[in-house]
Amino acid sequence: MLDDRARTLLKLLVERYIADGTPVGSRTLSRTSGLDLSPATIRNVMADLEDLGLIASPHTSAGRVPTARGYRLFVDTMLTAQPLALADPSQLPPEAAAELAAVREQLHPDQPQRVIAQAASLLSQLSSFVGVVMAPRRDSVFRHIEFLRLGERRVLVILVSSDGDVQNRVIFTARDHSQGELVEATNFVNAHYAGLGIEEMRERLKGEVDALRAEIAQLMQAAVQAGSDALAESSDQVVVSGERNLLGVQDFGSDLGILRRLFDVFEKKTELMRLLDVSSRAEGVRIFIGGESHVVPVESLSVVTAPYEVDGRIVGTLGVIGPTRMAYDRMIRLVDITARLVGHTLSTRV
Questions:
Q1: Are strands 286-289 and 301-310 parallel, antiparallel or unpaired?
Q2: Which one of 32, 36, 260, 303 is least enclosed by Cβ atoms within 10 Å?
Q3: What share of the chain has pLDDT > 90, as a percent?
């Protein structure tokens, strides 16, 4: 356990390093701590903190920097970030109110995929790091299906899910169909199958295919396959925005190996999916710090995440990815605001 003096100095060191990006020396802490301590006494405390693995001394400097373990202690016990009351912006600090206004202004209750893309872009813009959003798990129930003739033996299938998301698929048919036949098929499908899930539609078709007219049965089977393909393609989709922001981060700019590893993570997305999936199992904001978390794929990264809900059910996760040297209190607030407003926007769509 740290005594109050050691906790105060560790908190100051972490805050100073986050703000300046340069190793913090005992003289700096002596001037800013407000404690009646000499630089020599502070050096002794810093030596103890280093022995505990909370700070480290870079080879090029006499100052100290936080380790992953030091950041974790700081985040878990020294931050005072509180959940924000979104209903009354006048009660928020000016910076938080401005962030809330920016998120509200740009999140429009349109199609879910557009909201997700807007959220990732906003997280990136407001954090100056990388914004990442796991899209909502798609509802397999379709509210409306429509067939439109594109040309000889080419038909556009329009699938509208129960949550309002629209998917378009082009199919090729065994024979050419007139638009009149396609309208008839559209009316029949929506009268008898609307509101069913894809698998339920598939099972019903197996039992009814012999009783249906051949052209209706073929179009129905094509529609079911198109819906199944749409769900498979969108399953656990991750939207990433602002990867290039990391090129300007002081902590990464001179290390091409780290940058290469980061962009590999963003391109493949498998590790991002694993991290976001872990985040979706817990309530509220979570912070993963590279070097002490096996979930973060790169040691010098930190990830701040929060799940978002639609109609009271967790359907996805979003967050900010940046260096371990980040303003955690601000990132927590930004991610919390965005998660709650994304959930509200998707829940209130017409």
A1: antiparallel
A2: 36
A3: 26
Question: What is the largest distance, in Å, between two alpha-carbon atoms of the chain?
Answer: 91
Question: From start to end of 141-285, where are the E strands?
Answer: 142-151, 154-161, 166-172, 238-241
Q: Over the Cα atoms of the chain, what is R_g?
A: 27
Residue with the bigger pLDDT between 253 and 265: it is: 265
What is the per-residue pLDDT for 231? 63
CATH of domain 4-77: 1.10.10.10
Q: CATH 3.30.70.330: does it fit domain 89-137+236-347?
A: no
Beta bridge partners of 318: 133, 306
Exposure class string for 33-52: b at 16+ Cβ within 10 A, else e: bebebeeeebbebbeebeee
The domain ranges of the chain are 4-77, 89-137+236-347, 142-234
Mean pLDDT computed over 180-191: 87
pTM of the model: 0.71
CA distances from 74 to 18, 234, 287, 310 (A): 12, 38, 11, 32
Give mean pLDDT, residues 319-343.
91
Query: Is there a contact between 149 and 219 (Cβ–Cβ < 8 Å)?
Result: no
Task: Report residue 307's pLDDT band, with 50, 70 and 90 as the boundaries.
Answer: very high
Share of the chain above pLDDT 70, in %: 85
Q: Which helix (H) or strand (E) holds 13?
A: helix 4-20
How many Cβ atoms are within 10 Å of 21's Cβ, its own excluded?
13
Question: Residue 34: pLDDT above 70?
Answer: yes
Determine contact, residues 29/9, Cβ cutoff 8 Å: yes
